[in-house]
Amino acid sequence: MKKINIVGWKNELARDLIALGSIPFFLLVLVRIYLLDNPVYLNQFIFSGIVFLGLFFIFRLNLYSGLGLIVLFFTSMYYNDIAFTIFGSIIYLFIIASLFYLKYDMKKVFLGILAGVIGIAIGYVLA
């Protein structure tokens, strides 16, 4: 009988969760938004992403915590559904917990969150 490697399973789940704040996932969301034919909504994502990525490259902060927050915020605004917002927020908290579990630098994680908030604010205003 084969033993289940619980630690490996936890690590894999944590990596899967943080992938929701990755550049490929962000691009996947952008393509989906493009298909909605809503230029204001698309511009919010694009401007927020550009601002965040600029801050990411300048300050070397955590990518996953910032991009994940941008996706959560704007998708929650678009769907305007409390159940979706609660579900997305719980998943986002799991992303942050996964970053902690995988021993990412917490200072960079929180700076990534702050940069995500800055990106959201600028993207929202510019669009």
Task: Produce the secondary structure layout.
Blueprint: H1 6-18, H2 23-35, H3 39-59, H4 63-79, H5 82-101, H6 106-126
Protein architecture, described:
The chain is mainly α and 127 residues long. The protein is built from six helices and no strands. Helix 4 packs antiparallel against helix 5. It is globular, with a radius of gyration of 15 Å.
How many helix segments?
6
Could you tell me the strand content as a percent range? under 5%
Record field, number of beta strands:
0
Question: What is the element string, with H for helices and E for strands?
Answer: HHHHHH
Offer a few descriptive terms.
6 helices, single chain, 0% strand
Brief summary:
The chain has helices at 6-18, 23-35, 39-59, 63-79, 82-101, 106-126. With 127 residues, it is an all-alpha fold. The termini are far apart.
